[in-house]
Amino acid sequence: MKPTTAEWIEKAEGDFSTMQRESRARKSPNYDAICFHAQQCAEKYLKARLAEADIQFGKVHDLVTLLDQVLAIQTDWEVFREDLAYLSDFAVSFRYPGESADKKSAFDAVKRCRFFRKIVRNSIGLSA
Hints:
This protein is mainly α. It has helices at about 5-25, 30-50, 65-70, 80-90, 105-125.
C-alpha cells in the first residue's frame, strides 16, 4: 500500500470512529455530527482508492464526482451512486443553522457508510 493511501485510510478511520462513538451515545447524540462524519469517511475512502491507483483528484468533496473518477478502475461501484449521493449532502447541509439531522437520517448514514467502507477496505486488501 502506498504511503498516501495509508494516510487517507487513517483519516477515514478517524471519521469512522467518531461516527461510531456518536451513534452509540445514549445521552444527547449529535445526529448532525454522525451524518457529517459518515460523509467524511466515505470521501476519504474514495480518495484512498484513487490514491492507490495513482488517479489524481482535486479538493473535491462531492462523493458522486469522486465516484465518477473511481469508476475507471472499479466499474462495479456504480451501485453505490445513490448511497454516495445521499451521504454527499451531509458535507455541509447540517453544519449551519436552519437544518438539522434526525435520528432516522443519522442511522441511515451510518448504515450506508459502514457498507461502503467494508467494500473499499476489501478492494484495497484490508479486513473490514
